[in-house]
Model the fold of this input.
Amino acid sequence: MNKFVWLIRREVWEHKAIWVAPSIVIGCLFALLLLAQHLRIDFGTPFSALPRDGQIVIHQFAYFFVAVIVFLVMGVIAFFYSIDALYADRQDRSVLFWKSLPLSDAESVLSKFATGIVVIPLVAMIGSIIAQFVAGGGVMARLAMAGQPVGLWWHPEALGGGALIALATCVTAMLWYAPLVAYLMLVSAWAPRAPFLWAVLPPVAAIVLEKIVVQSSYVQDLVASRLLGMYEIFSRRGGSGDVNGLGELADRLGRIDVAGRLREFYGSPDLWLGVIVAALLLAAAIWVRRYRDETA
Done:
């Protein structure tokens, strides 16, 4: 176990973008709040006129959108990390050094997979919580300087709700994106060159061929669902049309049953079939790394 932890620490040390990216996002958010000259949005209804529960709900979902920004950025980092994780070792021949050590191919692949599917979401969760504090503090400061009510930005229910949403997003991302990361690892272990193209072109070609031959969009829907499907848990459903006023927005957001959607999501076969597919793809990546010509 200690050896496995050190392998993961090595990945984090070598790939500084894992911890630099959320720092940049938080810095940009802080700079945006400092540079904002006017922080005033006309919702039609005074925010202070809303009931306390409605105000807290809006604060929670504001924190959720801050977390989404961090998670989307870290998702891009995870994509490029996974596509390069095993290919880079072959490209610079460092795979020869690692194979000379008492390390199995399974340990090497699994440590990189754990970095992509566990460490990066955890860093995203921590970064999103810090970003929520920065956003809340910045908004409160700007509102106070403008002579407007600061609301409940640092209320325990608002901050706690934002943190719980970040935690739920982190755990859900680990399970939902496992097959995608495993697929990228397999491509990274096999691709003779340009692993990005080998990873992206096959699904794009499948989507185009399906459109032309059978005129359906099953593959496109599958890819879109695997990329963004988990965010539907926190999206607004059951309502249509524009939101008329802040009160209606708070009412619609308050009707979103996040706990119920999470139970439905974790009980869906798509999630657990994806975990099984991820295990099979990881086994294939380990096999390819073991027998792939490292000089290719």
Q: What stands out?
A: The chain has one domain: 2-233+243-291. Residues 238-243 have pLDDT under 50 and may be disordered. The longest helix spans residues 105-145. The chain has twelve helices and no strands.
